[in-house]
Structure formats: C-alpha cells, structure tokens
Specification:
heterodimer, A: alpha+beta, N-terminal domain of TfIIb, five-stranded antiparallel beta sheet, 24% helix, disordered C terminus, B: Rossmann fold, 9 strands, 18% strand, mitochondrion (chain B), UbiE/COQ5_MeTrFase_CS (chain B), methyltransferase (chain B), ubiquinone biosynthesis (chain B), UbiE/COQ5_MeTrFase (chain B)
Amino acid sequence: SCLSTCPTITPPDCREHALSAAANRPFPGAAPRHSSDGQEGQEQPKAWDPALLEFLVCPLSKKPLRYEASTNELINKELGIAYPIIDGIPNMIPQAARMIDRKAQDEEPKQT
Amino acid sequence: MAASIGAVACRALHSRRYGKLLSIGRGLFSGARCLVAEGETHFGFQNVSETEKGEKVYHVFESVAKKYDIMNDSMSLGVHRLWKDILLHQMNPYPGTQLLDVAGGTGDIAFRFINYVRSQWEHQIKQKLKSHQNLSWQEISKSYQEEELKLPGGSQVVVCDINKEMLKVGKQKAQHLGYSEGLSWVVGNAEELPFNDNKFDVYTIAFGIRNVTHIDQALQEAYRVLKPGGRFLCLEFSQVNNPLISRLYDLYSFQVIPVLGEIIAGDWKSYQYLVESIRRFPAQEEFKAMVEDAGFLKVEYRNLTSGIVAIHSGFKL
C-alpha cells in the first residue's frame, strides 16, 4: 500500500506532474510511519525540527504542509499526499510520498 | 563550446582504455549536450534517457555515500577542503543568515557555515565587550548561553539532498561533531525544491549541480527560494585552461581516480562516472550564461586551482 504514490484527486496541473513523477519513480516508496507510541515517539521531538515547517512546502503545489504527529508525516491535504519523515528527515520527493485515501483519511488517526 | 567538448572527447578517445567511447563520440560531435534528442541526457560519457540519469546518479551516490568524505580527501589530496573554505569566505555569512545548501548531503558546507557564523558572532561579542567595559558578568554569561542554545542571530542552514544515504551520513557526522541547533536535513530534488518562495539569504550547491538532470530548472528553483537580494553560490568542477595542467589533470582523472575509487570504495564505475560528468559540465562562461538566464544579476565566477573548479556567484535583485 505504501508503494501507491500516485495521487488520484488533484488539481489538473499538479496531477499531471504527480502522475508523471510517479510513473518515472526512480526511488522505492517509503513506508508510512506508525509511531505514536514507544521509543520512536520519544525520539522524534529532537529528531524532527518543526521549525522546518516555516520553510517547507509541497514540492508539487508549493503550498504549506501540515505536520501529522500520529503518522509522522507532512500532509498536503489539497493534493491528498503525505510525505514521510524518516529518522527525523522529511522525504520531500513526490515519488516517495504516500497517497492518502480520502475515505480512510478520517479513520487514520484511530489506527495508530 | 561544442569544439571544446569535441577536444575533450578526442583526448578521451586517444586513451586506449576508453575505446567504447567511440559510440558516445557520435553524440558529442553531433552537437553536444544541449542538442541531444529530447528526453535524452548524459550520464558521464553515455547518452541516457532523463529518467535513467536520475536513477543512475542516485545509485552512484547511494553506493559512495559512506566513503564519500574519504574519497574526496584522497582524490583531491585534501584540496576540496580549501575550495569549500574559499566558498565560505566568499559567502561571508553574518549571524542571522538563512542558508539553503542543496546537494549538501554529508554536511561539508553546512558545518563550515555554522563555524563561520559562530566565529563572526564571537568577533562581534568581543567588539561589544571592548566598547561596553561595564557589562555585568551575568550579561556576558547569558550571551554565551544563548550562543550554545541556538545559532547566533537565529541563523539556520537547511541541507537538502536528493539522496537519503548521503543525508544519513551527514546527519551522523553532525551528531558526532556536535552540530545540531540551526541545522536541518531534508530529502528533496533540486529541480523541484520543497521550500517556500523568498526564504533564504544564500543558496549554495557544491559539487552537485553537474549531477542534476535539468540544470536550468535547478537554477530557476534556486532563484525562486532566494529572498530578493539573496545570493546564489555554486562550487563546481570547471574547465582547465592551461594546456599543460589540463594534460596532467586528464591523466590523473581518467587513470588514477577510478583506480582510487576501486581501491578505497570498491567502486570503479561510480568514480569513472564522476570524472566523466566533470568533463560534460559546461565551462565557466557557458555556465555563467545559464545562471544569468535563470534571472540572476551580477553573475561572476572565479577560478580556483587553474580552473579545476570555479565558484559562480549571482544575486537575485
């Protein structure tokens, strides 16, 4: 599931971009993180620097992102994609991003 | 330029080792990098599809990441350190400077930036102390505590690299060396940077831009993320103009570096690519024109070590 990187519901221009990006996909998709508990949860505050959010935008739409602590991802709600933060390093490569299933979006926090 | 590429290719063709370059030679002589069929680019001396280049470059750096620093030292006999120091001197960042270092995986530029900003800050404090002899020592110790907590003046450096293996090495190095505040790591593509417009005072890319598939796009992105008044600085291998040095340099590049790569990193091919990619990168004037095309003004370059590398500088005004 984590390999499905291609957003389906996106504005036309970004969608085209995202689709072609996903089609090329030189890099393996990154696994989504489920890390709200345990050691990882303790490590993350120092590993991931939320001050970065001031600079970071979605590389496709150039719009601001929201940090989702429960999945440790950066979310672009408009395009429905989530960029993983792995070992405290946000991976902002569209090919590594995860497509958020809109229907499951509300349920997601409960899973973790 | 086409002529100079031809010359390089000729020289390369004379080398027995690179007989297979004949096929690539066709691409070179038929009009150089800018004119190869659409969707095609080069990977070292091979013509490959654009997607393939991205993948191949990724694998090169994935495989060399762990030995990258040792290799840089041994291949350049340590001179790459001086080149990077010179880059920092040219940047001359003040406390508060926001730096984006693209393709800066192992942190060489970022760590130098932090050291530089700290020393600037210390210098400023000394000046202040000279003019305010009556500062209480609580005030003095407070200023030092602040310095330990974060970078002076709120300086920040964001290291962005497409290769997470390189970043991993950089981050470990940072932990080992005790750099943490004001330093962030992001996996991102120079051609579509994940940063907001007008955010950085300085954009650096050191020995990175020649590995980017669409250099023009990377330059446009650099322009976009820089604040008005911000500065673009690029340290990259360039063209040696002295014929004698050029001869020796070629000999060293093609005969010695891949061997070193094999001995130290167990990876001949990656280092052969590095050498070839250096030869395919535009010479000083051509790259200067590309930087200007992206919108930068006051574009200048200076050669270091007879043009083995050059620093290009431009401003977003």
